[in-house]
Hints:
Number of helices: 9
Order of helices and strands: HHHEHHEHHEHEEHE
Number of domains: 2
Strand order of the largest sheet: 1-6-5-2
Radius of gyration: 18 Å
Largest sheet: 4 strands, parallel
CATH architecture of the largest domain: 3-Layer(aba) Sandwich
Structural class: alpha/beta
Shape: globular
Oligomer: single chain
Amino acid sequence: MRKMWKLFNLIFPSRCPSCNRFTDSLKHAPFCTDCWQSLTHNPDIKRCRTCGIALPSDYSFKCITCIKERPYYKKVYVFGDYDGALKTAINLLKFEKVRRLSIPLGELLASLSLPPVDVFLPVPLSKERLILRGFNQSHLLCHILSREFSIPMEPNILVKPGDIQPQSLLSRAKRLKNPKGAFSVIMSDRKLLPDRVFIVDDVMTTGATINECARVLLRAGVKEVYGAVLARTKSE
């Protein structure tokens, strides 16, 4: 397969966005094999046991934010920091619409040791945002997790009726307030709501989006809510 890809690259040259060498693999193109293999989960990084942000001290187990105010979710599992090749890959998927990267990125997320749950739920996009982007990257990642763990994905339980400003364009203070009231739970029979769910997203900054999703799910009757994200920013 690699020889075929090298031949293809002679005709349609593609360079790795991290090292600028020619791409040598179809599976995680446009990244080269070496750069993609550098994307490994590092369990030695000390992270907050609740929100997953990297901690400066080896003796800490929770960040100040989570100590001051406990989030609605139980814990967020993080693959890596929003930096380097991982950041580039996520941005290529999300903003440059390189949708094929959702498969290898989803497999990276699936490499985490996640506790058993009833369903995976992608963070929803509003109808307007979905039309504008053409796809929901969280939905694509959620599909891979569902396949790898043999746990169903339910994309229609959690919905986003209206549109809000993109979190990436806002200050931290506005990011914390922005998602409030943005999500709703749709279920014809509330008795059929799952007890334990994973909310899946690509990047987590302040955690306000996942926290708001968790809040409405718990209020609807879900017992426990976890988060699974590819990348966590190093600061809020």
